[in-house]
Design goal:
Layout lengths: L1 H11 L4 H19 L5 H9 L5 H21 L1 H6 L2 H15 L1 H7 L2 H8 L6 H12 L2 H4 L1 H11 L5 H29 L6 E2 L6 E3 L6 H23 L9
Antiparallel strand pairs: 1-2
Length: 242
């Protein structure tokens, strides 16, 4: 963090004050947006053990994410070109919060209710595919306006350095996200059943009793923190422009 901030400070000397302030505000918003915690492996364990998602189905979900991310970038390109980074991140944050609700609801048995009145059509896998298809384009879209801003405003002889430093900064945010995920999983304990392969003795029992609160906390933090950062930044001289 110290090295990256030092490099950013040296680069900002090359920018006009207004552009420098806008880039700082953009960097802070992106950092907070990317640093929010995730549920961790407990959510995947629940899907495998309780919802009976096998490796093939999880691979299908991964493929959907990869393909629809590319489609989403193309479709949402006009939005990214016309709106500020603060607007886009706020929109993605709210959308991400809404799209986290099906996963929380399935923990509490939504798929059992929907499967009952739909003759088994809208089951856990149907909900997971639909939710993944809607959510998958959102993850990488917030990065594109920032990269476009750098390409447009960074001095020509420093564009590559700007890209490298900001990429390192956002990767640092992912490390922060991993740390926050770890700390939340220390607060809400989720364990999976493990069996000694040699003796067949159960070493730890599955316990998903706190997974619901973990998912709810992640959803609240994932919405509240980015929106708070946007509200604060947009009320200072660091505000981002369209």
């Amino acid at each position: 963090m110290a090295i990256i901030l030092f490099m950013m400070q040296r680069l900002f000397v090359e920018l006009e004050p207004r552009a420098k302030h806008a880039l700082i505000g953009t960097a802070v918003i992106i950092f907070v947006f990317r640093a929010v915690p995730l549920p961790g492996p407990g959510a995947t364990w629940f899907e495998i053990d309780t919802l009976k998602f096998d490796q093939q189905f999880l691979s299908i979900l991964t493929l959907i994410v990869a393909l629809l991310t590319l489609v989403g970038i193309v479709i949402l390109r006009p939005l990214m070109a016309k709106r500020s980074i603060a607007y886009i991140v706020a929109l993605l944050t709210v959308a991400g919060g809404i799209l986290s609700l099906p996963n929380i609801a399935m923990y509490y048995g939504l798929h059992e209710w929907t499967a009952g009145w739909s003759a088994g059509i809208i089951d856990a896998r149907f909900i997971a595919i639909l939710d993944t298809a809607l959510e998958s384009p959102l993850g990488q879209i917030a990065m594109i306006p920032m990269l476009a801003w750098i390409a447009k405003n960074a001095p020509s002889h420093l564009k590559a350095t700007f890209f490298a430093v900001m990429a390192s900064f956002t990767n640092l945010a992912l490390s922060a996200s991993s740390l926050l995920t770890k700390y939340l999983n220390l607060i809400y304990t989720v364990t999976r059943e493990t069996v000694d392969q040699a003796t067949g003795v159960i070493q730890s029992h599955a316990d998903y009793s706190e997974l619901g609160w973990l998912l709810i906390t992640v959803a609240i933090v994932g919405v509240a923190f980015p929106l708070a950062a946007i509200t604060i930044i947009q009320r200072t001289r660091l505000r981002t422009e369209e």
